[in-house]
Every structure is written in structure tokens, then in C-alpha cells.
Amino acid sequence: MAIATRVLGKSGIEVSEIGLGLWAAGGGDWGAADAAADAASLSAIEAALDQGVTFFDTADVYGGGHSEALLGNAMKGRRDRFVVATKIGWQGFNQDMRCSGYQSVTQLIAGVESNLRRLQTDYVDVIQSHIDFREPTMEVFLEAFQKLEADGKVRAYGVSSSDFEYIRAFNQDEKCATLQIDYSILNRTSETEILEYCRAAEIGVIVRGALAMGLLTGKLSEDSTFASDDFRHQWLTDTAQNATYREDLAKVRQLQPLVQTGRTLAQAALQFVLLNDAVTTVIPGARTAEQVHGNASAVDAPALDASDIALIDQLTQPGGGRKIWPA
């Protein structure tokens, strides 16, 4: 197995085209992260390194910082093997004012330094604004990120969003190096404008949600259950969300022809995302070494052919689909 590398936009940073997303590793929205879950997540990180993964994405709000702390423990003594992206913005967010809690450059820099302490490192490769829409403190983020970059505490910065006008505003001085965005077989909305813009502006694209919160693994069904502290529990208990969940399952069943000897549906979903040349890396989440191995093996699975793409286009037309909340 050999996971190829791609350059992350204008940053010049080289990353594995398949990375590891560590949202679930933090617990929180995905259920509790107890000692056994932590051990499994650390094994997943180890397996990722063994498979050739170099890119790891986390955030300050994943498990209240627990995901960052786990990654920090994993990096001890071998920081050079990790390209690390983290995010900031939602801690202390003022819902009434729809405004970040970081009102000054000094405050935001202090916030990023908290990220660094949890990660047990003196720099992060990519810092991203986690707020996905333009709010009153956007310029604070830009100024702080640029100062952090100048001081060597971050190598590049970007934003996590699917709002095209906001993305363009965040790149107003053409220094934004990365975009993290939801993109999958079920959500191709970014194909109409955003991905082309990123290609032209040399913004490296980090894809989240490629497996649609587990839907595109093909392992979920109407009989699946989720723990009460897993956000997907609402797919079963909320009437509107349950109806949408059943519609999504019906769509996924139509994708079964993508499954063949040596290729799972999840691997086909990852391959589809990586076919778009605007994409730099895809970061499927995993909490076990087995899941990591399955995702990384997408590079060795039989490639999608013209008939596979035609099937995907029939299910979700180019530029169509919808975001699978909360990717």
C-alpha cells in the first residue's frame, strides 16, 4: 500500500491524500470517550502512521479539547511524522449576538496557544477558523492567524465552511491556504463554484464528510441503533430527521453496484472524492485500527470506472445533493 501525497494549496505543505479525522476520537457528539475508547483511538492513530497517513485533523471543541490531547500524546517524541491541522472559533461563541467570543487578536492568539498546549507542540501546521459563516470578528481571525504564521506558531491557515461568499472574504488578501468542506457522493454542491475557485486560488481542499456520517459505509440500516449521546440518535427519534435518514438509506442501497471484490462502498466513496483534482486530502473519521486500515486501503482497491461514475451521477447529479448535518 502506498498512499500518495499532494500539496496543500499555496502552503506548500505535503500531506497524504487520505488523512485521519479525529472528531469522533474526542467523544462528545459521538458518544463517551472512556479509557477503552481512548486506547482504541490511539491504536487508530498508530495504524494510520503504519499505513502511510501523515495528515491529522482535530479541533478545540472535539470532546472539549480531548481529541487534541489524545493526538498530543500520540505525537510525543515523533512530532516530525505528523502534519497537524486544528480549528478554533466555537469556544465561547455568543449565540445571541451570532459572534465569536474572540473579540481581539490578543484573545485569539491566546486561544491558539491553548490548542498548542493540548497538542504538546510549539507549532501547528494548519490553523483553521471553525466558524462556518461570516460574523463580526472575521478580521480578528485573519490578523491573528497572519501574526501566528509570521511568528512560526502556525505554518498556514484556512477556514472550515461551505459558504462561498464567506470563503472568498476569508481569502480577500489571497493568503488563505486551506478550505475544509463537506463533500461526498451525497453532497456535490461544492462542485458548482467552490472547488473551481479553490483550484484557481491555490487553496488546498480538505474534505470532511466523505462517508456522510457513516451512511456511505453501507453498514447502516433502518434497524441500526445509536447511543443516546451519539448525535445520530436523533436520526431515529426525530420524525423529520428519521424521514431524511430513510431517504438517505434508500439512496445508498442504489450504490451497491459500486461494491465489488476488493472494494467496499466506503472505499468507493473515498475514491470518488479524490478524483476531483481540486481536492488535496480526505479525512475520514475512525476510532479503530480496523476502520483506519479499511479507509487507507482505498488507494489499492479497484478504481472507479466510467460506469461507476455514471451511476453516481444518476443518483446525485454534479453540483447536486445536500449537506449531511453536521459535517
Please provide a written account of the structure.
The protein is 36% helix and 13% strand. The strands form 2 sheets. It has an 8-stranded parallel beta sheet with strand order 3-4-5-6-7-8-9-10, with helices on one face. The mean pLDDT is 95. The chain is α/β, with parallel strands linked by helices. It has one domain: NADP-dependent oxidoreductase domain (TIM Barrel, Alpha-Beta Barrel). Helix 1 runs parallel beside helix 10, helix 2 packs across helix 3 and helix 3 crosses helix 4. Strand 8, helix 6 and strand 9 form a beta-alpha-beta unit.
CATH class: Alpha Beta
Strand content: 5-15%
| Biggest sheet, spatial arrangement of strands | 3-4-5-6-7-8-9-10
The percent of residues in helical segments reads: 25-40%
Structure summary, number of beta strands: 10
CATH fold-level label: TIM Barrel
Tally of distinct domains: 1
What's the average pLDDT?
Answer: 95
C-alpha termini separation: 28 Å
Any low-confidence stretches, pLDDT <50, length ≥5? none
Which H/E pattern describes the elements?
EEEHEHEHEHEHEHEHHHEHH
Alpha-carbon Rg, integer: 19 Å
Structural class: alpha/beta
Let me know the largest β-sheet: 8 strands, parallel
In CATH, the homologous superfamily goes by the name NADP-dependent oxidoreductase domain
In one word, what is the shape? Answer: globular
Treating each run of at least 4 consecutive H or I residues as one helix, how many helices?
A: 11
Q: Under the CATH scheme, which architecture would be assigned? A: Alpha-Beta Barrel
